[in-house]
């Protein structure tokens, strides 16, 4: 079967709706017949400074459908089937660019140059100290979060559709200049999103630099397997393939220790409901307002290996996360509120979505005991993460 790549002018997810596979109102409809993989491209509007934003609809041969924009590589919608074959949008996002600019810029975004936190917005590299914007202050302690005031989530990337056999995707490119948000070195980045017939969303990250610099990219998609704005994720069942985690201080910066999770509310080595222990009397949970922590994965080989699994029993939706990265951040939406509008006219709620961000550990440039995140000239930053969707 030849994959189609199209340019198409319409609003919302009309192409997907016309195909009978999903609804722009979030109403479940039954999957019927074979799905031809395709990429549909159309405008999504403009940023506040007038840049045009493109919208891509990826329809996978296995039935998963993704709406993605090249503003921050954001996944706007993600339709996956439940155990009956009905599809629902299971991620958080906005219908317009303005929502990301005014409500929450990280929803579904590519994150960089450094995902997660760097203490006090400072690090020392090769004898020089670099200062970054401090755009976050948990516990009233400032840090630099997700790349600073203008991370990769806030750039309009160059984008183009991809097709390889029955796989469809998008290629994103950008250059982060030397000094961008205080980081040294010109960084040339390529990210590819692929959607496969097996309902795998594969993300491939690559970067090269002309000067030594920290790099730690990730994706900040939020999941709610019951559907966007359909309650909390506390009834989702989570497994993390990690025997250890990195405890934090009240500023959510790792202390440098690696501690076993056994016997604590952080033990997800076997499946646990997210809400089962979230209110336990535990200092780490108090610091994060719930789960907002980094787990050190059992696989440290740099090869693709399981990191997490997620399941929701009423829909049967199931996800496996595989990655080449050494760690994963599990965040359960502690700062989400009912003041944030959803895409269907229904507001979100506290803990209405969760993120599983594959990564190197937070604050690694200041933590010599953690695996290095320093990319040097002549080397190539390469990581892969796969989100494998299914039902059971």
Biggest sheet, in brief?
Answer: 9 strands, antiparallel
Structural class: mainly beta
Q: List unreliable stretches of 5+ residues.
A: 1-33
Percent of residues in beta strands: 35-45%
What is the C-alpha radius of gyration, as a whole number of Å? 20 Å
How would the global form be characterised? Answer: globular
Q: What name does CATH use for the topology of the largest domain? A: Beta-galactosidase, Chain A, domain 5
State the strand order across the main sheet.
12-13-14-15-29-25-24-19-22
Describe the structure.
- This protein has 2 domains: 4-104 and 157-172, no CATH class; 218-391, Beta-galactosidase, Chain A, domain 5.
- It is built from 3 helices and 29 strands.
- The protein has helices spanning 14-18, 97-102, 283-288; strands at 4-7, 38-46, 52-59, 65-69, 75-81, 87-89, 110-111, 117-119, 122-125, 128-131, 143-145, 158-164, 167-176, 187-195, 200-209, 213-214, 218-219, 222-223, 237-240, 244-246, 259-260, 272-273, 292-296, 305-311, 317-323, 327-331, 354-359, 374-375, 381-391.
- It is 4% helix and 38% strand.
- The protein is mainly beta and 392 residues long.
- Mean pLDDT is 92; it is low at 1-33.
